[in-house]
Each structure stands twice: as structure tokens, then as C-alpha cells.
Design brief:
The protein has 2 domains: about 60 residues, no CATH class; about 110 residues, no CATH class. It has 9 helices and 6 strands. A two-stranded antiparallel ribbon has the order 1-2. A two-stranded antiparallel sheet has the order 3-6. The radius of gyration is 18 Å and the shape is globular. The chain binds zinc ion. It comes from Schizophyllum amplum.
Amino acid sequence: MMYEIFCYLHPAELLAISRTNKTLRGVLLRKSARWIWQTSFRNYKNMPEPPTDLNEPQYARLLCDNSCMFCLSPNAPLISWRARLRFCKGCMKTEFIRITDVHDEEDAILIRSFIRDRIHSVGELYSRAQVDNFCAGYNRVRNDEAQASAWLTDQLSIYQRTREVRQRMATILCNKS
Ligand SMILES: [Zn+2]
């Protein structure tokens, strides 16, 4: 019964309810509750399906919760679709870098080609953690042509999926009306 009611709620409401107490958190965040979120997303037709690397609660968190994923400050209007991060202006200064901060020329070229992101009203900006992961991943394969090529192909397909989500999401505001 409770589950059926949940299905009629907006993902933002499900997210809020999952935070009210331990019981409801347990109910909504277990794997077998995915269908509730999926139904909720489907009921709000403007909301595209989550990208494959995010589950529904994570996706709702990114879209509907205005708090910063780093410092939890309530006003975090900035979103990096590529890094799946929502953040505030303060954390932008500590957690993100510009391409000019990358001093290795080869790394800079690859970063711009494979994890490029433009953040609304801010421009091109890269999550530090993501840049570190990307460079570490590339370093592991860079001396082997076949591995490097497979790895970059993989990165490119993730990038294309991100762009698609980003374009679809660009105009959607997550309000309940
Ligand atoms: Zn912050």
C-alpha cells in the first residue's frame, strides 16, 4: 500500500522522504525498491531516464536536491553533468580546475577531448577528482597501443552519453508543478 502511494510522488519528494528517518530510508534505498523510483520518474515525463552509471536515488539527488555535494551548503546551483556533481561557488574554487591548471600538454589535450564539460554560467571547468582519475587511468594504458585505444574508446562513449543527458536536461527545472 505504502509502496503504491510512493509511486505517485515526484522523485524530489521520494528523496526528501528517504531522508526523514531510518525506516523510510531503508524502504526506499534498498535495491528491490528501484521500481518505485522508476515509476516515479516515468510519471514525470520531462525527466529523462538516469544515465547508466547512476541509480535513481543518485540521479534524483543530482537533479532535485539543491545542496552542495561537497559541503552540503543549501544553495548549490552549479552542476557538472560530466562529473555527476552538484556544487556551490565556494567548492567550485577548491574542487574544480581550469584547463590552464593542467601543466602536462598531452594530458590537457586528452582531458579537453574526452572529459570536456561546460558548466552553465561558468564555462569550461573540470572536477579535480575526475581529472586525477582520468589521468591515472590513462597512465595505466598509455604505453600499450591496443589498451590505450580501447580505454579511450570507452571514455568517448561515456562522454557521448553524458552529452546526451545534458542536452535533454538543459532546460528542465526540477520543480514539482
Ligand atoms: Zn560547497
